[in-house]
């Protein structure tokens, strides 16, 4: 194959695509520029989730006419002069290619003024058929950048844009990171003239957090600062131990205000809190590393999402120690209601008092609607199993006539002799049926509804004619589901019994049920309870203790279980007569 030399129009689009792949990347770059320009207020206006238009206005330093005209050219930056500067600056930008990249794939207009006295006019730079022109304009100090027609010249890229809701969610996530790492900047965000969120820039993390994740009953978030040495300090904000999540999504690390992908962060953080938080629970941790730029390299990823630390071990230890001290301090200060040497008994007690009947016994009550995306408050899956298991009555409390346990076949089928019969009982099926029955009873006894602390978004891959009917059915049984654009739905409340489960399982089952192009006889609640029971029950092949086997056999006979919730038989039996026929002792 012959080698071609690509012309500039082609490779600049390829390069731009690395930096700008969706509206959220434009927002990220423009907000970074406003931060670098020392803005104290940043106003973001979006149309159609940023797909149609993005306008960002700041009250920062602004630009002179000359700088404005240079700003959208390739490799133009005011932030560095030599490569060594990268190792001393803390600005968000330095590559001098963001505005150029944005200009390459959209229609850009910039209005700016660097004078607060009004003696020097402002200027507007715009493009007509890619020809740049500058005009004098009256405007306040600061910069306004307007982006339209994203990917107008890259139709293939444009096709990859998702629904406006998805793009808006992605912008929200980007902005939330910027907001949390710049608490002294007031952000205002509108989409289609509707307020998305607003922060007051007063430096308070807790206020900023609950301005974006709106909640009438905010939970405690404690700040902590840890000075490792002159070149390294860590500020972190964390939830108390009663608040935990089923994902690590709310464990985020920033380096010099940049959110980064840091592969060892989770391990360092969880080593720090493991003495204070039950395994499997994820507290909220926003951790900000402030480090001498000479000790890291930020120039290894176009979107600056990765950094390289000069000494990773130091950072690991610093994170671990900061988290450890923060959690130990909050425990000592009594915020969690226990003393520093009493963790284990507290956790055991907590697990055993979990009660399916009372709503959310292991999370604070009354979490109400919160805008934004996707936090799933963690309702400990493990705790549910423990409590479910502790609900299995012990053998001595039961009263069935005698049976003799022979053993377990193929690590699955419990073999029992009783009343002149041999029973082969499927250990998984019997426990699954039992758990399902209990969950169902609880649901019927307590059809309570929980408002979610933070609603979750469900995005369907396909649609069908039954969706609207299904949504009505779901809303009748305690869900509160709102339809958004582009096959996405916001779930704001759900039956308490489901809220007590691992939300990601509920989400997955809900999605499958909505995507089925039929309405089955089985209700969605049953479907979810069955799947949850299936996951909690012992599995085929699990080796059980004699006591566990005995309990399952008691349950089997007491509850007269015949079929599992999927309809399969739980057991089969052979009578003594039939058994003996095989030995030709009987005819
Ligand atoms: N909102 C703004 N206020 C003031 N100056 C700005 C603003 N946005 C851009 N500039 C100027 O335009 C220059 C080019 O911006 P651009 O984002 O392309 O590059 P950068 O920020 O220097 O580096 P990077 O490509 O890493 O973002 C900046 O260095 C800055 O001088
Ligand atoms: Mg920039």
Task: Please name the defining characteristics of this protein.
eight-stranded mixed β-sheet; 587 residues; binds adenosine-5'-triphosphate; Ribosomal Protein S5, domain 2; formyl-coa transferase, domain 3; 34% helix; alpha+beta
Secondary structure topology:
Elements: H1 8-19, H2 23-36, E1 41-47, E2 53-58, H3 65-71, H4 98-105, E3 107-113, E4 122-128, E5 131-137, E6 142-148, H5 155-159, H6 164-181, E7 186-191, E8 194-198, H7 205-212, E9 221-229, E10 232-239, E11 251-255, E12 258-259, H8 265-273, E13 285-291, E14 296-297, E15 308-309, H9 312-332, H10 343-352, H11 381-390, E16 404-409, E17 413-418, E18 421-426, H12 427-445, E19 449-459, H13 467-476, E20 480-483, E21 488-495, H14 496-499, H15 503-515, H16 524-536, H17 546-559, E22 571-575, H18 576-581
Parallel strand pairs: 1-7, 11-13
Antiparallel strand pairs: 1-2, 2-6, 3-4, 3-6, 4-5, 7-8, 9-10, 10-13, 11-12, 14-15, 16-17, 17-18, 18-22, 19-21, 20-21
Helix pairs in contact: 1-4, 2-6, 8-9, 12-16, 12-17, 15-16
Bound molecules: adenosine-5'-triphosphate and magnesium ion.
Magnesium ion is lined by residues 29, 32-33, 93, 98.
Could you write a compact summary of the structure shown?
By secondary structure, the protein is of the alpha+beta class. The chain is built from 18 helices and 22 strands.
Structural notes for this entry:
- The protein has 587 residues and is α+β, with helices and mostly antiparallel strands.
- Helices cover 34% and strands 23% of the residues.
- Strand 16 and strand 17 form a beta hairpin.
- The longest helix is centred in the middle third of the chain and has 21 residues, at 312-332.
- The termini are far apart.
- It binds adenosine-5'-triphosphate and magnesium ion.
- Magnesium ion binds at residues 29, 32-33, 93, 98.
